[in-house]
Design a protein that fits this description.
279 residues, alpha+beta, 4-stranded antiparallel β-sheet, 3-stranded antiparallel β-sheet, 9 strands, DUF3071, DUF3071 domain-containing protein, SepH-like
C-alpha cells in the first residue's frame, strides 16, 4: 500500500493535495463521506495554499441564512470550513426554528375534526404512496423578499423528489411554489411566469427586424367619378329540387327540395323507395 502525505488543499478548495514518497502528486475530493470518516476539525483546519481570507463573520452568517453551503462559503471566501462552522450556530438555529414553525402550521382538519399540521399532511401523502418517511429531509433559507423557502427531499422511483413552498412567518402563510408542493398539500399548481424571449444584439438578426406594414392605397374622388360604371349582377337564389319545372329552370331552380324520411333521421340511411310491384 502506497503511503500518501497531505500537502494542503487545491486552489479551488474542493480537493486535498496529496504526495507519495516518490514525489508523485494526487488529489482527493473533499466529500461528505470523507468528512464523516476522518477527524472533522483536523481536516477543515487545513488552509488552502497561498490563501488570503476575504470574508467577514457577518458575511458568513448572511450567506448561511441565504442557503449557501459551508464548502461554498469557505471556498469563495478563502477561509476554512472550520471557521464557517464556528460562526454558523445562531443562523442554523434560526433556520431550524423557521422549519419547526412551518411544519407545525395547521393546514386542515380531518373527519374527526382533529387538526392536521403541514408536516402530518405531507408525510401522510407520501406514506400512502409507499415512501419511507424516515428518508425525507427538510431545508430552508431566507429569500430576498424576507419570506422563507421550504424544501423537502424524498425518495421516489426516479431517485429523489423535491417539493418546495414559500413560508411567511409574520402572516403564518404557506404556499406551494412548484407542482410537487401543490400536490402534497392538495392545492392548485402555482402559475408559472412566462419565460422571456431571446433578443439578439445584432441589428441584422431576423428577430430585430420590424415588419413593415403595406401603405394603404389612396383612391381619389375624381378617379371614382370618372371610373366606368359596372352593372352589378343580381344574385339569384338556387333552391334544391328534384324535378324543376320549365319556369323553375328560368328562375335558376335546379332541383326540388326533398324532405328526409324517418329512417334517414333516425338511422342515417335512405329509406327504400317504393317499386312498381309495391304499387
Amino acid at each position: 500500500m502506497t503511503e500518501l502525505r497531505l500537502d494542503g488543499k487545491t486552489d479551488d478548495g474542493s480537493h486535498l493535495s496529496l504526495v507519495d514518497t516518490d514525489g508523485n502528486n494526487y488529489s482527493l475530493r473533499i466529500s461528505d463521506t470523507l468528512r464523516a470518516t476522518v477527524n472533522q476539525p483536523r481536516l477543515t483546519s487545513v488552509p488552502a495554499m497561498d490563501a488570503v481570507e476575504t470574508i467577514s463573520v457577518k458575511e458568513i452568517q448572511r450567506r448561511l441564512r441565504a442557503g449557501d453551503s459551508f464548502e461554498q462559503i469557505a471556498r469563495e471566501g478563502q477561509t476554512t470550513v472550520d471557521k464557517v462552522e464556528r460562526f454558523s450556530g445562531p443562523v442554523m438555529q434560526e433556520r431550524e426554528y423557521i422549519l419547526e414553525n412551518a411544519r407545525n402550521l395547521i393546514m386542515r382538519r380531518d373527519i374527526h375534526r382533529i387538526d392536521l399540521t403541514f408536516r402530518e399532511v405531507v408525510l401522510a401523502k407520501l406514506a400512502a404512496r409507499g415512501v419511507d418517511t424516515d428518508e425525507v429531509s427538510w431545508n430552508t433559507w431566507r429569500q430576498l423578499d424576507g419570506t422563507w423557502h421550504i424544501e423537502l427531499h424524498y425518495p421516489n422511483r426516479d431517485g429523489n423528489g423535491i417539493a418546495t413552498w414559500n413560508f411567511d412567518l409574520s402572516r403564518r402563510a404557506l404556499d406551494a411554489s412548484d407542482d410537487n408542493g401543490a400536490w402534497l398539500i392538495d392545492e392548485e399548481a402555482p402559475v408559472r411566469a412566462p419565460s422571456t424571449a431571446i433578443i439578439y444584439s445584432e441589428p441584422s438578426h431576423s428577430s430585430r427586424r420590424e415588419e413593415v406594414a403595406p401603405e394603404p392605397e389612396i383612391v381619389r374622388i375624381a378617379d371614382l367619378l370618372n371610373a366606368p360604371e359596372e352593372k352589378a349582377e343580381t344574385p339569384r337564389l338556387a333552391v334544391i329540387r328534384e324535378t324543376p319545372s320549365a319556369a323553375d329552370s328560368q328562375d335558376g331552380i335546379t332541383a326540388r327540395a326533398k324532405v328526409p324520411s324517418w329512417d334517414e333521421i333516425m338511422f342515417g340511411r335512405k329509406s327504400e323507395e317504393p317499386t312498381e310491384e309495391d304499387n
